Amino acid sequence: MFRSVLRGAIGAGVMMAAMASASAQVLEIGLDNGPTGLDPHLITAFPSFMVVNGNIYEGLTAVDKDLKIIPGLAESWNVSTDGKTYTFKLRSGVKFHDGTDMTAEDVVSTIRRVQSKDIASPLASRLSAIDSAKAVDPQTVELTLKEPSAPLLSSLATIAIVPSEVETNKDILQKTPVGTGPFKFQEWQPNGFILLAKNDAYWQKGAPKLSGLKFNIVPESATRQVGLVNGQYALLPNIDAATALQLKGKPSVKLGETLDLAYMLIGMNVSKAPFDNPKVREAVNYAINRQEIVDAALFGAGVPGGPLSPALKSWALDVKEFPCYKPDPAKAQALLKEAGVAMPVTVTMNVLPRQDVKDIAQVVQEQLNKAGFKVELKNQEQGQFIQDWRNSNFDLFASINAGSPDPDEYFYRTFRTGGSTNVFKYSNPEIDQLLDKARTLSDQAARKTAYDQVQKTLACTGPVAHLTYGTLFSAMRDKLQGYDVMPNRSLSTLKNASY
Amino acid sequence: MSRILLSRLIDLVVVLFGVSIIVFLMIRLIPGDAVAIMLGANTEITPERMAELNSRVGLDKPIVQQYLVWAGAALRGDFGTSLWTGRPVATEIITNLWPTLELTFLSLLIGAVLAVPVGCWMAQTRGSGMDVAMRIGAIAGLTIPSFWLGIVLILLFSAFVPGFSSLGYVPFSEDPFGNLQRMLLPSIALALPILANLSRLVRSAMLDALGQDYVRTARAKGLSERTVVYKHALRNALIPFLTSVGIMTGYLLGGAIVVEQVFAIPGLGRLILGAIAERNYPLIQATILVVTAGFVLVNFVVDFLYIVVDPRVRA
Questions:
Q1: B46 falls in which pLDDT band (50, 70, 90)?
Q2: Pairing state between β A69-71 and A61-63
Q3: Are residues B45 and B162 both part of a single domain?
């Protein structure tokens, strides 16, 4: 009886597969986690970002796969000579998914929405430089800044333009997003899937080619892998090296890769001993062997990196510029002696509960223990980790951070005295001065000089030991063409993809 | 009869009240609140924004007030809305309830229905090589974790049955065949331990019954072995069987979390797990209450079935 059921099921399975390939236009995507909501101004975590960014919503500007700023909903812009007035010319013929035209008024109300206290958007600080926004005519928006802000264009790429009707509505976009993107929201089955359909009125001619995107929420890694291999899913975006290596060489499966903007880091609490002493922080850097971490924990898929991702080619310094990046346990011990701390230096390291972070924490523990430290690892539940992180309740922590395309976004909030995510309590007048100055410069070369100095200082004695930038993989079926993996994990290139 | 019904109803109310308080407090004792989790470890957020977000979802009020507001609404049948999505909690539970109910039903069907003949057979062939082999099989069935079995089944089917859709969920009403196809493997993964457990139970209860005087009498009056086993002995052996089925149903209704994870089925287990991970308080509270009520009700039904099966209980 069982056998006949099985045989029936097998026959049906083959039939279903044949039917499925005839209408294979909706791209089946396997995601490990479902989003908490779809309001692009409220939920900023990766699962939500991957669904909405560039697919449902677009910003005034956009970034290409090399993270260069390109026109988005604005087709061009002008910056006044004092750097305080930005004038954006909007693309014509852009419609929201509800059929209304996208106009300057929508842009202005979007900016007000992100800045509003009621909406409480975590993105508000990205627009803190904007004093006022004005619709000059239906196709022109003028932004007036309190002071020049070099990272503004990059920040605007992450601010989704929404219809003006929702300016004060807190809930509606969480459930039913309405944007201008190549795909429009169709259905959300919590814990099941999110289905987006093709936006026939999309402004870019010939895009999108796919008739829809279906984000299947599949928590188990083994299940996602099998689903890709047997063709049930066509794309597993932004997976780690271990998973990618397992899928490498499987029939009809190919890998796409790019250097990740996100990085592994060890954070140090400089508000208390022993890491209040810059020599101890420098010793940590000398004790760490970054290439060994890449080999042991990332399976060779990654590179050692400093405060900025090597993916940011126009900003990042080569790690050879940082003397402390040459592993030297003896030098580390000598620095600890100079610092006058009792050896072994006993400290606790909080570890973010992610497999890659746990692996790296173990390698770092080993390396530090060889250089005069005694590190105890504390594997924490996510909520506990975040709470301790936010309250600066740690000696060391091991974590992964998403990077930003512009140096200011990361540096200012993390290393400026009183910065919003400066949980290390780091304060260095020289860095403060450089950061304050650099964000007002519009000359790229002058900005680079300032950020070069910042990188050099932070690399060895800053509160963060930047470890590695991993290779970011996406695994997909052979047939999927035109999709590029992006360092910021956006899936916005899917609008040009075909399957 | 009505007295039993009434006392059960009072039990239900007391249990639900107790559970609601425990859940309400416990989930708030876990470090990391809803706002912190939603923001993650990597946002440019100020303490003021955190406070605004807290007040947005009503977490800035004293905890007693939060409980009273919630319990008051719940008594009127309003379980509130999911913390960030604003979807009604009742809707979320109902959508996630169907896959779990179906999974529970199918795995019990496979497990319990097969357990009776298998258990009887094991009892009849006691001591033979077949009995030993089946007992070893039963122990294996009990000890193999469902999630492992699930992954192995997925791998096997993907290797030998190309095109078999084993992952995810489609409602029966939309696509009956696709639904059953996707339910087959998880049901087997869940049914195996049930089958193992219940068949051992049936076996030992049956051995007990077969040693009784009335069975000897039945044999003596020339009834066939089949009638003796299935008509006379089985009925007595069913009481512990029913108790176990009741308890298992309760657990299965709580969502076979791991199997739902492995097969990507949007059931109650994943709803609870996801809700706990994101500290979605209204959703956690309501879902656990529903599961608790289900557990108590199933046990009530089982008590009632005792009366049907065993006339002695009626007295």
A1: low
A2: antiparallel
A3: no
Does B182 map to a domain? yes
Indicate whether B206 and B284 sit together in one domain. Answer: yes
Question: Is A22 in the B-facing interface, judged by CB distances under 8 Å?
Answer: no
Is B81 within the bounds of a domain? no
Preceding peptide of A274 cis, ω within 30°: yes
3-state secondary structure of B243: helix
The reply to whether B127 and B188 lie within a common domain is: yes
A100 or A14: which carries more pLDDT confidence?
A: A100
From the CA of B101, how many Å to the nearest CA of chain A?
Answer: 16
Closest CA to A419 of A481, A359, A463: A463
Residue B84 in domain: no
Min Cα separation A220/chain B (Å): 5
Q: End of a domain among B46, B75, B104?
A: B75
Is residue B217 domain-shared with residue B259, that is, in the same domain? yes
Boundary residue ending a domain (B47, B75, B103): B75
Residues in chain A closer than 8 A to B43 (CB atoms): 44, 122, 421
CATH of the domain at B190: 1.10.3720.10
Query: Residue B235: pLDDT band by 50, 70, 90 thresholds?
Result: confident
DSSP letter at A82? T
Q: Does the beta carbon of B179 lie under 8 angstroms from any beta carbon of chain A? A: no
Find the angle CA(A165)-CA(A495)-CA(A243) to the nearest 5 degrees. Answer: 115
Q: At what angle do helices B89-124 and B129-143 cross, to 10 degrees?
A: 160
Question: How far is B313 from chain A, CA to nearest CA, in Å?
Answer: 37
Residue B295 is part of which domain span? 92-314
User: Rounded distance, CA A350 to CA A399, Å?
Assistant: 9
* Cα A84 to chain centroid, rounded: 28
Question: CA B123, B129, B130, B136: dihedral to nearest 10 degrees?
Answer: 90
Per-residue pLDDT, averaged over A131-136, amounts to: 93
- Averaged pLDDT for residues B107-132: 87
B199/B276 same-domain check: yes
What is the H or E stretch that residue A441 is in? none
Partner-chain contact B167 A223, CB within 8 Å? yes
A109-113 contacts at long range (C-beta below 8 A, 24 or more positions apart)? A109/A162, A109/A164, A109/A167, A110/A159, A110/A160, A110/A161, A110/A162, A110/A164, A110/A167, A111/A143, A111/A159, A112/A167, A113/A41, A113/A162, A113/A166, A113/A167, A113/A168
Choose among A200, A201, A197: nearest CA to A188. A197
Report the alpha-carbon distance of residue B81 to residue B280 in Å, rounded: 10
Counting the structural domains of chain B, the total is 2
Looking up tokens 């004792």, which residue turns up?
B29
* Judgement on whether residues B105 and B190 belong to the same structural domain of the protein: yes
DSSP A490: -
Same domain, B13 and B47: yes
* Residue B82: inside a domain: no
CA A418 to chain centre: 23
CB of A10 less than 8 A from some CB of B? yes
Q: Does one domain contain both B99 and B246?
A: yes
B36 touches chain A (CB under 8 A): yes
By three-state DSSP, how is residue A28 classified? strand
Cβ pair A102, A139 in contact under 8 A:
no
- Using alpha carbons, select from A280, A368, A57, A371 the residue that is nearest to residue A48: A57
d(CA B33, CA B287): 19
pLDDT band at B218 (very low <50, low <70, confident <90, very high): confident
Q: Is there a contact between B142 and B196 (Cβ–Cβ < 8 Å)?
A: yes
Q: How far is the C-alpha of B201 from the C-alpha of B208, rounded, in Å? A: 11
Residue A454 pLDDT level (bands cut at 50, 70, 90): very high
Residue B160 CB neighbours (<10 A): 9
CA distances from A12 to A7, A59, B185, B265, B300 (A): 9, 45, 15, 20, 40
Q: In this predicted complex, what is the ipTM?
A: 0.78
